[in-house]
Design brief:
The chain is of the alpha/beta class. The protein is built from ten helices and twelve strands. The strands form four sheets. The protein has a six-stranded parallel β-sheet with strand order 2-1-3-4-5-10, sandwiched between helices. It has a two-stranded parallel ribbon with strand order 6-9.
């Protein structure tokens, strides 16, 4: 296939692009400086110039909890409008398939555990990331509506918290790693946000890329499908694991005045196994070591 991967130069995008290339697909990854996907005419120009068989939509305005809290308008508008325009143009120009990547933030702030796809709309998402979550919920609804009205082949996957090589984002793993590394160099304690008690489901980026490509190739339904491990890891445990691997034995201080997001998170990914044969195979210890080897280099 000829596949356009938006956000293909980002953390997850680079892994998805490589996975597609490894399977002999032709990939084009547009840069935001050349195609502003918030403008519908730019989405149309992209599709006309590249004539893709399929689209993997990863482009997003992303950031840590602090960014989400301080700029909710940008997170809502930019993420919603990029996806809305791109899918409408793809449908209008006969693109065969579009896979959109969501976020575990879409789930209600107090979900049942593990989180199952049918409960995404059962309550309000966590306040701190609510704008981003609502934008992604809208794109999921768009795919379902377009499948029903236009028979458009829209696919939607929901990865959990990602980590791994090439991660220079504000995700929790690289931010913690940066703080511990700086403390090793400069001395002093490490101050981390929140209480450390929330749990997250950490998915190795290589596993996620495999899941996205398998969904693109073998799945043809518009409803959300989780990509996760199902394992809850407390944030405090993640911190101690990173500290151990880096050799940091100093003080860790938790700042409960700073936001920490939803209390618990772990995704039930049995549907991905059922629908297109995917399941995660990298445990957190091995994945962290791979990431930290890359970070140190």
């Amino acid at each position: 296939m000829r596949v356009v991967v938006t956000g293909g130069y980002g953390f997850l995008g680079q892994h998805v692009v490589q996975e597609l290339i490894d399977q002999d697909h032709v990939v084009f990854a547009p840069r935001s400086k050349n195609y502003d996907l918030r403008e519908k005419r730019e989405c149309r120009r992209l599709i006309k110039e590249q004539s893709p068989d399929a689209i993997v939509h990863l482009a997003a305005r992303v950031g840590g909890i602090g960014d989400n809290v301080s700029r909710p308008g940008e997170f809502l508008y930019d993420n919603a409008v990029m996806g809305l325009h791109l899918m409408d143009v793809a449908r209008d120009h006969g693109v065969g398939k579009m896979l959109t990547v969501g976020t575990a933030c879409m789930y209600p702030a107090t979900p049942t555990m593990p989180m199952v796809e049918s409960e995404i709309f059962d309550g309000e998402p966590a306040f701190e990331t609510g704008a981003y979550a609502h934008a992604k919920r809208l794109l999921l609804s768009q795919g379902i509506a377009y499948a029903e009205q236009y028979d458009f082949n829209a696919v939607f996957v929901v990865p959990t918290n990602l980590y791994g090589p090439l991660d220079r984002t504000t995700h929790v793993v690289p931010q913690m790693t940066k703080k511990f590394s700086e403390a090793l160099d400069e001395g002093g304690p490490v101050i981390l946000w929140g209480s450390g008690s929330p749990t997250r489901d950490f998915l190795y980026v290589g596993d996620c890329a495999e899941g996205i490509v398998q969904a693109l190739l073998y799945h043809n339904e518009p409803y959300a499908v989780n990509l996760g491990t199902g394992v809850e890891t407390p944030i405090w445990a993640l911190a101690h694991a990173i500290a151990w691997e880096l050799g940091y034995d100093g003080e860790i201080i938790w700042d409960p005045t700073r936001p920490e997001g939803a209390g618990r998170r772990a995704l039930d990914s049995s549907l991905a196994k059922q629908k297109f044969g995917w399941s995660a195979h990298t445990n957190l210890r091995d994945g962290l070591r791979k990431y930290l080897e890359w970070f140190k280099s």
